[in-house]
Design brief:
The longest helix has 20 residues. The strands form four sheets. This protein has a four-stranded antiparallel beta sheet with strand order 1-6-7-5. A four-stranded antiparallel beta sheet has the order 2-3-4-8, covered by helices on one side. By secondary structure, the protein is of the alpha+beta class. It has six helices and twelve strands. Helix 5 crosses helix 6. Helices cover 24% and strands 22% of the residues. Strand 6 and strand 7 form a beta hairpin.
Length: 268
């Protein structure tokens, strides 16, 4: 999952009323989901704030610790009444007085990490693409001296935090930059286009509640609701379809072990 999906999940939790909830019990149905702590470490602790950093969801807790939740590929959170039925793919359930939050994760890649020093995790992450510090000139400056191809660099969470395969492909298409361009060759004008594309696409995807693709058991949902942004995608997973700008068939290559979609005419 990427920034828009994680941001949507955070907003759903906050609007649902999870801030202020006290954890009275835990059901740990898949032990490895708790990466560095035991369920009892969260007992009688209140959630004081919910925020996002990159692809992480952060629960600030009343005991001074921070719970990091990384949904990875197939994770989702469901905040419901305690009486709501469990799902076969629920891995961890936080129980409150009358409600609960279930961490559903069919492929079991998601993790929860508890720390007293959140900076140990957040300081390793790159710049926030929707933050004030992320400007066109800052992006251009960040690209200088980087020999990596731009697609690989956009996926590097230590470079920019929150962008994954979908929004990297879509941003490069909107900016008309080839995915195999070396980052250091991108001009200031191109960096301005790329910055604009990244910011506008991420913001629009948040409005659309993220991108859900297909109908598989691991497809993205937030609190049971699908994202609606798939209808806005121009090239991602559209191999062979005509480019919406020039009608050239969209091509797919592999870049850094990731499927990469682009228009060979618009993104020369």
């Amino acid at each position: 999952l990427e920034l828009p999906e994680v941001e949507t999940t955070c907003r759903d939790l906050v609007s649902g009323g999870i801030v202020g909830e006290k954890i009275v019990a835990l059901e740990v149905l898949w032990e490895p989901t708790l990466s560095n702590f035991k369920g009892e470490d969260l007992l009688n602790v209140t959630i004081t704030e919910v925020s996002r950093r990159g692809k992480f969801i952060l629960f600030s807790l009343s005991n001074g610790k921070t719970l990091f939740i990384h949904l990875r590929m197939t994770g989702s959170l469901r905040y419901t009444q305690k009486s709501a039925p469990n799902d076969p793919y629920d891995r961890v359930i936080l129980l409150f007085e009358t409600t609960k939050m279930a961490f559903r994760d069919p492929r079991k890649f998601g993790r929860m990490t508890l720390t007293v020093n959140p900076e140990l995790i957040t300081n390793k992450l790159g710049i926030e693409p929707l933050g004030d510090e992320f400007t066109p000139h800052r992006l251009h400056q960040m690209l200088q001296g980087r020999s990596k191809v731009i697609k690989t660099l956009l996926l590097d969470q230590n470079f920019i935090a929150g962008i994954g395969n979908i929004y990297a492909d879509e941003s490069l298409f909107k900016a008309q930059i080839a995915p195999l361009r070396r980052a250091e060759t991108i001009t200031l004008e191109e960096a301005k286009r790329l910055h604009s594309a990244i910011v506008s696409l991420l913001r629009a995807a948040i409005v659309n509640r993220g991108t859900s693709l297909g109908d598989g058991k691991g497809n993205y949902v937030s609190n049971g609701k699908r994202g609606e942004n798939a209808r806005e995608l121009k090239i991602f997973r559209k191999t062979g379809a005509p480019c919406p700008i020039c009608s050239t068939p969209i091509e797919k290559i592999v870049v850094g072990q990731r499927a990469t979609h682009f228009c060979p005419t618009c993104q020369k």
